């Protein structure tokens, strides 16, 4: 367990780490054994093969000093700069604008830069006299006989433990970095741009001034919230149906389509509704609505998808 010098409150980040096996190591392993699995006799889709992690997986604890106001991203940056430069994670803006740092925090998809340590740290569980694992809320609890790990004692003054893993539903590139390319590909496939002829605005003397798409405030209000999607993938990570875009196009791609379908300027509404009305499209949605809970920008993803389903049905009627 890596530990930073402690003088006050501490927190332990328990990071699920993954280091991919190099291609040449894979080839060597295959060539060296006559029993090495070369290909599935049932066929393995390239996407599925790519999602299967091949490499070393382990869990690593980092205990560090905090004041409680830091975000998990702050802590990861401290660890990277001062303790372990090999720890890999992705981020860019640092304040909830780019969506690049979504990961699973205590199993919940969320943005690392918005997740406050004090909100996510959990006291470690200990085993009571009857063998049940209890959350330690009171250090003086008589029933507790032994801590499940050394964090309880090492982190006696601490806020507790935060478990970090890559975004669920995606292949892992390395440590906390998920491969979100399948999500981006699904979005690209559905034409994530305005399809419109537009209205040419002209100057008084008849010359083309600017290409303008006119819209009233009410028309803008219909889809404006959806334009705030930062394509973080938290909704995909929370969705029990989504698994890399093969069985289900995923909530992020559907939200992107809803943004254009609800836009009065877009002229491809029917084409868009047709494109999502497929077995791996809107028909695969089970309306679990776990996606709504995790959206960091507050889009009610499940409700928006439900509205899309209604529009698809209306078109059929
Ligand atoms: S809808 Fe919300 S959770 Fe899903 S990708 Fe967009 S911002 Fe992220
Ligand atoms: S780093 Fe950009 S959203 Fe978190």
TrEMBL record:
GO terms for biological process: respiratory electron transport chain; tricarboxylic acid cycle. It holds the Pfam family Fer4_8. One of its GO terms (molecular function) is succinate dehydrogenase (quinone) activity. Belongs to the succinate dehydrogenase/fumarate reductase iron-sulfur protein family. Residues 22-56 are annotated as: Disordered. The keyword 4Fe-4S applies. One of its GO terms (cellular component) is plasma membrane. It comes from the Bacteria. Keywords: 2Fe-2S, 3Fe-4S, 4Fe-4S, Iron, Iron-sulfur, Metal-binding, Oxidoreductase, Tricarboxylic acid cycle. Its EC number is 1.3.5.1. SUPFAM superfamilies: 2Fe-2S ferredoxin-like, alpha-helical ferredoxin. PROSITE patterns: 4FE4S_FER_1 (PS00198), 4FE4S_FER_2 (PS51379). It is an enzyme of class 1 (oxidoreductase). Residues 219-243 form the 4Fe-4S ferredoxin-type domain. This is succinate dehydrogenase. Its cofactor is [2Fe-2S] cluster; [3Fe-4S] cluster; [4Fe-4S] cluster.
């Amino acid at each position: 367990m890596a530990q930073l010098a402690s003088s006050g409150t501490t927190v332990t980040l328990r990071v699920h780490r993954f280091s991919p096996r190099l291609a040449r190591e894979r080839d060597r392993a295959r060539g060296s054994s006559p029993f090495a699995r070369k290909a599935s006799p049932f066929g393995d889709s390239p996407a599925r093969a790519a999602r299967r992690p091949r490499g070393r997986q382990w869990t690593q604890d980092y205990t560090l000093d905090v004041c409680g106001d830091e975000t998990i991203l702050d802590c990861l940056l401290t660890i990277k700069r001062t303790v372990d430069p090999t720890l890999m994670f992705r981020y860019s803006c640092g304040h909830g604008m780019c969506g690049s740092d979504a990961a699973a925090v205590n199993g919940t998809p969320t943005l690392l830069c918005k997740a406050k340590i004090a909100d996510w740290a959990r006291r470690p569980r200990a085993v009571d006299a009857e063998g049940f694992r209890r959350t330690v809320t009171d250090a003086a609890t008589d029933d507790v006989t032994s801590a499940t790990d050394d964090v309880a004692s090492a982190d006696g003054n601490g806020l507790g433990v935060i478990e970090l893993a890559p975004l669920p539903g995606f292949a892992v590139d390395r440590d906390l970095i998920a491969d979100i390319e399948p999500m981006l590909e699904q979005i690209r496939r559905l034409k994530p741009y305005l399809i419109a002829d537009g209205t040419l605005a002209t100057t008084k003397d008849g010359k083309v001034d600017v290409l303008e798409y006119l819209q009233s405030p009410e028309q803008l209000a219909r889809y404006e919230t959806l334009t705030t999607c930062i394509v973080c993938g938290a909704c995909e990570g929370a969705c029990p149906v989504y698994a890399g875009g093969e069985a289900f196009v995923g909530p992020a791609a559907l939200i992107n389509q809803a943004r254009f379908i609800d836009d009065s300027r877009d002229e491809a509404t029917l084409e868009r509704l047709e494109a999502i009305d497929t077995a791996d499209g809107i028909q695969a949605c089970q309306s679990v609505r776990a996606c709504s809970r995790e959206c960091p920008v507050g889009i009610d993803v499940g409700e928006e998808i439900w509205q899309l389903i209604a529009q698809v049905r209306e078109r059929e009627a």
